[in-house]
Design goal:
By secondary structure, the protein is of the alpha/beta class. The protein has two domains: 62 residues, no CATH class; 98 residues, Rossmann fold. Helix content is 33%, strand content 27%. Strands 1-2-3-4 form a four-stranded antiparallel sheet, with no helix packed on it. The protein has a three-stranded parallel sheet with strand order 5-6-7, covered by helices on one side.
Length: 161
């Protein structure tokens, strides 16, 4: 999952990835904060909750929020952290769309399966499926559709198209 925002004075990105270590020590959760003022900073484990509060406060406190785009790596089956974030967005009635990235790096059958699995897992806490976009930065797949959605959403005064 990657959450990015930019304003003239501050920009930050949250990049959350789950990696398996070589030794059987479980899963390592990495969170990375990049600020235009401070450079790059790795968050210490104790800071995760504080940063999560900052992000959720930023999103839920926005009066003018057209939509949140949840970027999901399409090479993987649904990840718990992505599902939790979508569940939180749905519970807060925050408009969102799912953007499955790196479509060029996965076989079409696996891509279809991963998207279907994700939609199936979020079905219990969503009234209807959110907009879904399949994208690739390399091949530019989905770019036109995503930009059209953004344009339509903004034209509707921020109401998701």
């Amino acid at each position: 999952m990657r959450l990015t925002t930019a304003r003239p004075s501050v920009s930050f990105a949250l990049d959350v990835t789950v990696q398996k270590r070589k030794k059987p020590t479980g899963i390592l959760l990495r969170q990375f904060l990049k600020s235009s003022r401070t450079g790059s900073t790795w968050l210490q484990r104790g800071e995760h909750g504080l940063f999560a509060k900052m992000i959720t406060g930023y999103i839920s406190g926005r009066e003018i929020l057209a939509a949140v785009f949840v970027l999901i790596d399409s090479r993987h089956t649904p990840q718990a952290i992505d599902l939790e974030f979508v569940e939180w967005l749905a519970g807060e009635d925050i408009p969102y769309a799912l953007v499955f990235s790196k479509a060029d790096k996965v076989k079409p059958g696996a891509l279809k399966t991963h998207v279907a699995q994700f939609l199936e897992k979020i079905a219990p806490f969503t009234a209807s499926p959110p907009p879904v976009f399949i994208t690739s930065a390399e091949t530019r797949e989905g770019r036109r559709e995503l930009l059209a959605y953004i344009t339509a959403t903004l034209a509707n005064g921020g109401a998701a198209a």
